[in-house]
Amino acid sequence: xxxxxxxxxSHPIRRIxxxxxxxxxxxxxxxxxxxxxxxxxxxxxxLGIRDGYNGIFKPEDYPDGxxxxxxxxxxxxxxxxxxxxxxxxxxxxxxxxxxxxxDGTVKEVDRTxxxxxxxxxxxxxxxxxxxxxxxxxxxxxxxxxxxxxVGVPKTIDNDLSKTxxxxxxDTAVSFATECLDRLHSTAxxxxxxxxxxxMGRYAGWIALNAGVAGTADAILIPEIPFDLRTVAxxxxxxxxxxxxxAIVVVAEGAKPKGGKRSVLEKRxxxxxxxxxMGEKVALALAEMTGKETRHVVLGHLLRGGTPTAxxxxxxxxxxxxxxxxxxxxxxxxxxxxxxPTVRYVPLAQATRRMKLVPLDCDxxxxxxxxxxxxxx
Length: 376
Ligand code: F6P
Known about the structure:
Helices cover about 35% and strands about 20% of the residues. The chain is of the alpha/beta class and about 375 residues long. The longest helix is centred in the middle third of the chain and has 22 residues, at about 170-190. Bound molecules: 6-O-phosphono-beta-D-fructofuranose. 6-O-phosphono-beta-D-fructofuranose binds next to strand 12.
């Protein structure tokens, strides 16, 4: 009761919406469950918007409705499930919505005003937006237009500023590390160089953390443009010492010194798709070292499956903190992990700049000290 009162600074919250945007990440369902249960405790109704904001923009695509009522039954038994029960998309950003023009061309148009109107028409008093940089930039735009909104930082890439970690990252790193463990035995059996490409977009967090934890011989991250000659030397040095195999981790966004990232696709209304650097590195290393080389792309495997206990707990804490923030009358903020607690940071600050691996961080230093080649 007291909480509902605090929320009534402008008008009381009766109904909130939750949405999940961008690439999925393990822990999304745990956040949804937490938001729903905590909101129900506040006496609020909860709707899930399908596939980012598509449930609002294109209700005709959803015969069962673009807005899903979320109750206790709907969120039962989902904490450990990967994916998201309300769907997500990394297309259809309302700030750059692909819209057909009268002349037949398609242009990116800012449709946030339509979104604000639609939220009001559905009597949605507040939104919990779960997403990465793109989704939280949209959330910030909504907040600036007067919508009560709290963001929850999601991404396996861990590239969001102002939170020590995003949920989904721990699961991705744990799985990538397990893959590196598995690849060691086959690499050694065949005396091969195994090149492993991991996601992470423009940040090298997954590659660096999994690479160090999984005892890779070389790790190439976007923050350190690489020179493959140093990697080849390391491989040959190992071979000279009787270690006839090597594991090289390549972040999808890594690029050679003076060269470019490997981009697969760029579509209207969507971010560019990265990929292919693992294969390029493998081909070049095969030529430079004369060693049999294979490449593996872990790709979306890093996003699927059961969240680790760390990610589940973080997701549940983030969801509860988001509702707590709304109940306290907060808006325009993102929930952030600041151990041992969770705090709130303005969305504008959280989305201002990408969190890249600092070159002077101790994990980079540790990698160097352990003799891992960073392609420098
Ligand atoms: O941002 C999460 C992420 O998995 C990135 O690491 C990757 O570059 C991208 O999404 C892949 O997107 P998609 O699912 O569209 O292939």
